[in-house]
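Incident review: delayed structure delivery

Summary: a single-chain prediction request sat in the queue longer than the usual turnaround. Root cause was a stuck worker, restarted by the on-call engineer. No data loss occurred. The affected request and its eventual output are reproduced below so the record is complete for anyone auditing the incident later.

Affected input:
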Amino acid sequence: MKTRSWTRVSRIAIPALLLVALAACSSGPVRRVSEPAARLQQLTVNVDGSWTAQVRLENYSSIPMRFERFDLVLEAGGQEAGALRASPALDIGPESADVVEARLVPAAAAKLAAADALAAGRSLPYSLTGTVVATPDESSKSRDFDIERNSALSPAPGLPGVLR
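Output delivered after worker restart:
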């Protein structure tokens, strides 16, 4: 008698559990929008004294994002260098990154700090503060993300005037 009631319960319980499991899977992947990041990948001191900065934009979201623009203040060697601005209108996939070039004419004190680091073969500390404007995939509204990054660049061997 016990075997028969267990069989009847299992005929109902097992399909019910399978339906619950299938329903849980049907919701799809989680769509998470995370704060993006920006950092310097490379800084090149040009012959005319200007700098070309390769700004790496990092999308930590689980969905693609369109990076509309950025406005970042660069400080190099403890000295304010100037503003890095660009409007790349660049689509970056989920959990991916891409690089955008921005040029600036640095302030004299920052120019000296970079020249000193290159001549001595030592690293150059830098900070980026400002805003990155990005639009999450399938959204018509862009969002402003605050950026605050402290790091350092080192001279690239064999590439004069390049810090990575």
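Verification: The chain has a mean pLDDT of 91.
Action items: add queue-age alerting; document worker restart procedure.
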